[in-house]
Each structure stands twice: as C-alpha cells, then as structure tokens.
Amino acid sequence: MDILIIGGGIIGLSVAVALAKSQKQVGIIDGGFTGMATTAAAGMLAPGAEQLPPGPMRDFCQASLKRYPAWIEELEHTTGQSTGYWPCGILAPADTPEPGHHTGIWIDRQELEHQQPGLGEQFVGAWWYPDNGQVDNRRLTHVLRQAAQSLGVQFFAQETVVQIVQAQGRISHLMTHQTAHHAEHYILATGAWTHKLLNLPVYPRKGQMLALQIPPSAPRLQHVIFGPAYLVPRQDGHLIIGATSEDVGFQDGVTASGLHTLLQKAMATYPLLQNWPVVETWWGYRPLTPDECPILGPSPWPNLTFATGHYRNGILLAPITAEVISNYLNGNTWPETLNFCRWERFGTNVELL
Ligand code: GLY
Questions:
Q1: Most CB within 10 Å of its CB: which of 176, 178, 250, 315?
Q2: Which residue, 293, 290, 322, is CA-closest to 305?
Q3: Which residues lie with the beta carbon below 6 Å from any ligand 1 atom?
Q4: Same domain, yes or no, for 102 and 7?
Q5: pLDDT digits (tens, 9 = 90+) for 286-327
Q6: Residues 182 and 317 both lie in one domain
C-alpha cells in the first residue's frame, strides 16, 4: 500500500480520490464514529456568509468554492450520481446594515422582500452572496465513496485505528483492534477524534440540527438563509436548520434546550415554518482548532501528513484540501501561502499517544 488514510469523512475521502487518480494505491481505515461532521453538516458553501475575517483562511475558502463546480462535475460524471450541488446563493438577513466582516452585496428590505418574501420583520435588509451555495453533504459522501471504490481505493470499514506507531523517527505502522497496517505514507484525517491518536489541538464543538418537511403548497425557498439560525432548503423538499455551537465535549444526543433554541431562531428568521413537520433531528462534532483554521501538511514525521481540524468549513474546503495534500504527496513542496495551516503555528510539540 502506498498511502493509508486514517479517517473516512469528507476530507479522507476527497484526498483518497485525488491520490488514487494519480495512480497511488490508497487505503482508508475508518470504522465510523457517531456524530461525524461530514454527515451532520448542512453542506453550506458559505465563505461569505460565515463572515471569515480577511486573510489567508478566507482566501483559501474562496479558492475552494471556485473549485466546486468542476470537482462536482467530475465526481458526478464518474459515478453517474447526483451530489445535490446547488449554487443557489446565500442571503444573510441583518437587523442593521453594519457590515462587520460581511463582503456581500447589501440589499434593503424592499429588495429583500422581492428576492425572498416572508423573512422576519426585524430584518432591515440582507447581505447577498450570489456565488455561495450548498451541496447535499450526505449524497456527496456517498458519491465520493463510490468514486473512491471505482478508482480502487481499499476500505477497512470495520476497523478503527487505536495507535500510530513510530520507529526511528518515522511512522512504522498503524494498529487497529484487529491488526497492524503498513504503508509508505500515512494521512491523518480524523476530524474531531484527532486527539485520540496524538495531542494536536483539535476539539469537538457540538452542533445540533433538525430537518423540516417543506409542504408542497409553501412558497419556494430558493436560497440558503443565513440568519440567527441557518435554513438550507434541499431540492428534495427538506429544510435543514442549524446549528447550535456547544463546548460540551462528546455528549451524544439532541437536547430539549438545543432544539428549543434552534427552533426559536428559525421561526424568528422565517415565521412561516412554524407549522411544518419535523422529520429528523441529529447532532455532530465540528473539529475545532484554537484559531479555527485547519491543520494541514507536513508533520514531525516525514511519512505522516495532517489533514484535520476543518471546524465549520470541512465541506467547503474538501476540494482544495484534496488538491494541496495530493500535490504535496506527489513530490511538490508545501506552499508558503499555506503555512498558516501548519501545525507548528501552535508552538507545542506533537506527540503520539
Ligand atoms: N458550517 C456551519 C456550521 O458549522 O454550523
């Protein structure tokens, strides 16, 4: 095996597909974790609406957004399946026209009413991001798995890596509960579970979510609405509502107060939804780092590469993460412009657990 990827979330899968396309023999070890951000996410592609401050992280997110159409087209062509990618634009309604870190086009209440009738009366207008959008992250995950399989990626789906083992300054193998796995190179794409294997500063940040069924008679929601809660209308008639942001560690399950908060915010954003049926509730864990930027690239071991800690932007950053990690593993030096993602910025030693 050339490369073993620890973690089969959207980052592990995207990297696997990119590397398998460059003729590498790739394996993914992931027995699955409850609450993976990959399937819990709403799939927003929202570098603007997320109000990232100016700087390399915002540029990186914008660059990934640009890659989405071609990346999706190739995946859908390879698999013959839809990802639900929808560059529908995002409206961020606001109760003040103060921009903060907003970079969108300001539209006043009259124009907002025209573009999206029915939003809460407290909003004086909205920031409009015509190039932001969404993808159905669960479908995309399925499509990525199919693409990876068709490219010969080997899945170890019943196993969980419990230890990364080093010898003479290199990674010698991975231990799962079942067996040892060897490869030339290893990639760590373990998201919120990263600290189970080594002491990188990646922590779970819980989000609770729910989905409503949009009645066929309801006015069509044509954009993502990024208000106090975000509302993501899927083309299959579901409305995804998110999300809480809770510093509670791994605490599985939805709570009464979590759902209450979400529904209150959602109803204030778009009052019409109050009578729509709830079809699903769930939760997940965002992989948070201290500066909210991912940890990518070289590690202290020459044959281990990091691709973790994407926090709120893992779905958005999948195409560019796959590209930069695969370029690096194909012999290119790590670009200086991406030094803001290197683990050394935290100034601590990294040790295997
Ligand atoms: N990207 C939205 C969230 O993390 O809630």
A1: 315
A2: 322
A3: 44, 207, 242-243, 286, 312
A4: no
A5: 999 999 999 999 999 999 999 999 999 999 999 999 999 999
A6: yes
